[in-house]
Amino acid sequence: MSLLEARDLHVEFSSRGRRARAVDGVNLQVGEGEIVALVGESGCGKTTLARTLLGLERPTSGSVLYGGAPLSYSSRALKAYRREVQLVLQDPTGSLNPRHTVYEAVAEGPRIHGMPDEEERVASALSRAGLRPPERFLHSYPHELSGGQRQRVVIAGALALDPRVLVADEPVASLDASVRGEILALMLRLRDELGLSALVVTHDLGLAWNIADRVAVMYLGRIVESGPVEQILKSPSHPYTQALLSVLPESPSPVVLGGEPPDPTRIPHGCRFHPRCQVLAAGTAAGAGVDGRCRSQLLPVLSSSADSQVACHYAGARRR
Q1: Rounded to whole angstroms, how far apart are CA atoms 289 and 238?
Q2: How far apart are CA 187 and CA 216, in angstroms?
């Protein structure tokens, strides 16, 4: 069952007199007890999509659905929604007030929502986040903790509200490699023990491989490939996904993308990836007879199906 869903979602901003289509037609679902990785390089729109799913940005068109019902943007409805859909930020140091103890940081959410049994709730959240015994950390300040411990405090702050969904924006990007595995293992344990769902926003396909059930690859405001994580990462169909995977250490030959990074105010005709596409540049798309379509023919917006999907003229020609 779909718990959190983007349906034909568009988010636009005005930038220096031009219109930036940050999210330009996205269908995406996060099911109950499911971890979905949203992957793409900086500027592709994934953080804007995550903020819109959290109700922090209002869509230009389309809708966000939670439990099958469209999200309401009244203050009361958003307050109730954000208790159940919680954000975990990239930088735990910036997320925590240096003047607040761990207890105060974790208790802030329950106080805002008027939840009972504050002390028990804080201790339980810290314990579930792997800070045991919780009494050891209650009166500590952020500067007295390691980076991994600070990230656990941020996660505990979310858990204190008993959410159903976590939206984690680059949750381990600021951590040492030795600590990243611990935080990823924690998120998997929370999924298994509490039934939590999660949308994990990342530029790292290696992280997606280790934690996600499904992966959605985003480029210039749209999902260009999606499906079960093993299928997409073992046999990627889209040239952009192939390029992202090629930078992993085990890849035999990295793909260096040419052209300019994506600009949401200047979306090209045809396939939006074609100015940087290594398959088109190498003449392989021409050999398949699709190079003209790559440059001029729009691709359909992918559905929110859990099956493997790709928005690519060349991949479509190979499958036929």
Answers
A1: 17
A2: 19
- We report the CATH number of the domain holding residue 30 as 3.40.50.300
Q: How far is CA 106 from CA 114, 134, 137, 185, 246, in A?
A: 14, 11, 11, 21, 40
β-partners of residue 20 are 13
Q: At what angle do helices 102-112 and 118-128 cross, to 10 degrees?
A: 120
> How far is the C-alpha of 87 from the C-alpha of 199, rounded, in Å?
10
* Number of structural domains found in the chain: 1
Instruction: Tell me how far apart the alpha carbons of residues 316 and 299 are, in angstroms, rounded to a whole number.
Output: 11
Please state the pTM of the whole predicted model: 0.94
Rounded Cα gap, residues 106 and 100, in angstroms: 10
pLDDT, tens only, 159-204: 999 999 999 998 888 788 888 889 999 999 999 999 999 999 998 8
